[in-house]
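call fold(seq) -> tokens
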Amino acid sequence: MKTWNIYLSGEIHTDWREEIMAGASGLAVEFSAPVTDHDASDDCGVTILGAEPDKFWHDHKGAKLNAIRTRRLIEEADIVVVRFGEKYKQWNAAFDAGFAAALGKPLVIVHGADHQHALKEVDAAALAVCSEPKQVAQILAYVIRSELPGAKARAAE
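ret:
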């Protein structure tokens, strides 16, 4: 049986990744994600390659090191899920969605109704757009096992 590689991109301030992983329990999936420790992600470049007095170059070093991981994991993914949260603008998530779309990766986007207009081009590139992590787990169950939500309960009736 094939193990599906699912890349979970996007905001790092809520537990949406854990919700999807819990909902996908029992499926043949492996999950990957960017570094979700905010400080480590921001400071990896200067920690490894040396301090920078200019914040631009500080961020530049970190972004490049993080891109090594992100690009490789998106390239290896069977499905890319990108979550846009409420608190911050996730420009990196939009970039990941564009990169995945350019590679022809199946793309699932997650965001609230308040982001519909701002993300209309990102949504247009996706094969599914949903508002809750639970829906992503249901999409995975359907795609991998042809299993609809509640199908077991209906079959038992």
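Residues 4-34+77-156 form a domain with the Rossmann fold fold (CATH 3.40.50.450).
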